[in-house]
């Protein structure tokens, strides 16, 4: 049970990346007051959490209705996660922040913070794939959702602390952490692809 929780927690923590997304939160809320930043932090976490829990519960049914097989979903999810990992490894985070900050309006809690920053393609695919692994075990599904909620609470704490203090750890440290997480994510993504291929019934 605890192993499942840790595995799900590690995956969600790497994909959602509370530390790596924190600079984006600072960038898109730099013109807001402390009170507004705190409100945005609450809103974006609530919205993204609802989206991710929604897909964790019925995402498999949606894909089943569309006749998308679970192996195909696993392989697709692995490819998406791998591309995200490559972007984390090789793209300049500061450039992404500048682009986002120049193209946002007052509803930054919805876009880009909730979607696609926190509840993006990679995180949605992750919750669907990992919930599919336990589709016949309700207890383990609850554990997975608990792991997801834990990561979202951590993300909220990071965002809310930034909203109140306006301070953050050194940018170089953030980049190092993001790169390490990208390496871990790339390994997880390849494992998703392997699991999907092994699940194909020829």
Note down, in words, how this protein is organized.
Helix 2 (18-28) runs parallel beside helix 5 (93-101), helix 2 (18-28) crosses helix 8 (138-165) and helix 3 (34-65) crosses helix 7. Helices cover 83% and strands 0% of the residues. It has helices at residues 2-16, 18-28, 34-65, 70-90, 93-101, 109-118, 121-133, 138-165, 171-198. The two termini are 32 Å apart. The protein has one domain. The relative contact order is 0.23. It has 202 residues and is mainly α. The model is unreliable at 99-105 (pLDDT under 50). It has nine helices and no strands.
Fraction in beta strands: under 5%
Major sheet details? none
CA(first)-CA(last) distance? 32 Å
Give the SSE string. Answer: HHHHHHHHH
Instruction: Write down the overall mean pLDDT.
Output: 85
What proportion of the residues is helical, as a percent range? over 70%
Q: How many helical stretches?
A: 9
Low-confidence stretches: 99-105
Shape: globular
Number of domains: 1
Radius of gyration: 17 Å
Number of strand segments: 0
Give the structural class: mainly alpha
